[in-house]
Prior knowledge:
Blueprint: H1 2-25, H2 31-50, H3 54-90, H4 94-125, H5 128-155
Helix pairs in contact: 1-2, 1-5, 2-5, 3-4
Amino acid sequence: MQKLALKLTKAFFLTFLMFSFAFISSSAQPGKKAMKRINTFKKIKLLEILELNEDLSNKFLIAYDKFAKQERIAQEEIKETTSKLEKAIRKDETSKIKDLLKEMETKKKLLLQIFIDKHKEFKAILNEKQFATYIVFNEKFRHELGKRLLKRGKGKGRSNRFD
Length: 163
């Protein structure tokens, strides 16, 4: 157990050390390129921490990529609906607002279902300890990335307000 905790700690330290350099060097690059690098790095670290054999690594990566794509599409659709909803609010279009709220609820439910399906498939591929390790890594990764992005934004004098 201590060995796993030590590996997780090392991985997070190395991961975020690399992110620091990646963010510094990618300041002139578009956000999509930086996110692609982050996601690639995340997958590599996941494979290291999960200690999967080649067959399980292939199965896991196929499932991971499939659900990442589904999540990305769902998030883009939510973003698009949010934009439409914002415009409808500004124009005070009550009937359109009602329709867009229904649409948003449907899209959020779809995203939740993707999340549930992803976890079911990962549970089928990974053993219990590996799945738990995935959950812990994913939560810490998400939290640390958000913290670093917020810190980076503040450092450049950007506003973190919702305008």
